[in-house]
Amino acid sequence: MAQPNPETHVIAFRAAEQLLDARDPRGAIKLLDTVIAAHPESRSARLLRARAYFASAQLRAAEREFQHIVDREPDNAFAHFALARTFQRAGRPEQATRHFRLAAALDPKPEYLEKAGFDTAE
């Protein structure tokens, strides 16, 4: 069997994006597992796999992946927001609030501000 090359991993990543968009997170996870095995520090692959775990209600796995991103990119507002949503869905509101607030502080998008409970009126 031929060894996968970097191009194969790009194709697998793009296919995983399509599977997630088509609401097949488990299929996306399978493809991303091979990409991450070859490129363990690929933050984009890990972020996509975290989203797939979240979409398939694998909250502990989603938390682990989002936390991996936050640990390496503490200024990644989306990763904080997604981690907060994961905590919220898992019934851990205190941890969710912390990360909603971090996300809003890093990127004052209306959605982030609302979830953080910050007043958006001027």
Automatic annotation (TrEMBL):
It comes from Streptomyces solicathayae. SMART domains: TPR. The keyword Repeat applies. TPR repeats lie at residues 77-110. This is Tetratricopeptide repeat protein. Keywords: Repeat, TPR repeat. Pfam families: TPR_19, TPR_2. The lineage of its organism: Bacteria, Bacillati, Actinomycetota, Actinomycetes, Kitasatosporales. The keyword Repeat applies.
